[in-house]
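User: Some background: our group keeps a shared notebook of sequences we're curious about, and every so often someone picks one and asks for a predicted structure to add to the entry. Today it's my turn. The entry only has the sequence so far, pasted here. Could you supply the structure so I can complete it?
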Amino acid sequence: MDSAAYQAFTTELTRAADADGRFRGLVALGSMAARDYAPDDFSDHDFFAIAWPGHAETSRQERGWLPRAESIALAFRETAHGFKVVYRDGHLLEFAVFELEELSYARVNRYRVLVDKGGVTERMDERARDTASELRRTGSDDAWLFGQWLTQVLVGVGRHARGEGLSGRARLDDAVRLFCVLLARHVPSPAGSLLDGLDPVRRVERVYPETGAELSRALEGDTPGLARTLLRLAERELSHVPGWPRDGVAAVRERIEARHR
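Assistant: Of course. Here's the predicted structure to add to the notebook entry:
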């Protein structure tokens, strides 16, 4: 969906929510919010529809209020409040229907309020502040992150060598996520605001072009190659951090190389 078509869909959705007496608000999320970055040809529509009391569940049960409902190819309930919808042209909606007080279940970073018939903006601002506070409180310390990252690399390579390729790769994928958390925490970038605190691998290639490109290429290769790249990139980007597990990295590197001599 190009930018003009994307904006046209956003406008249709906004008008539909504004005209529907069941809704008190509509909140754009992610790319749809157009904060820090604009939607592109690959963006889906992420949003919250905020219902008046007593109307949330009925709005969840039917799709007629969505734009172009006759063109929906797939729709399913993902969570108690959340849904995914795919149109025949492949466009994706990811949304949740909440009553105002149910927003306490949501975590929020980038958003833009498109419709507010009472209390939506204030509640979203509050949830954004609470989400940031929750992330700070639950943020793991560096020793835990480094330990988890390094042991996921070690276990992943071991399982791959044992013939458990799927399980081994899953461990390395988690090691990639942990590496991205550490990178965002310790390597400043002028484009750092583009990073997503709720999903640490989002837009890493844009914020850290060289490191992101190297990691992306490694993800296209085999598990041992990805493990070696992770160790190399981490040593290059993170070895300045107090608590860098120098001896542990050396031990894991030796173990990987011993298996492939």
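Suggested note for the entry: The chain is about 50% helix and 15% strand. The chain has two domains: 3-138, 142-259.
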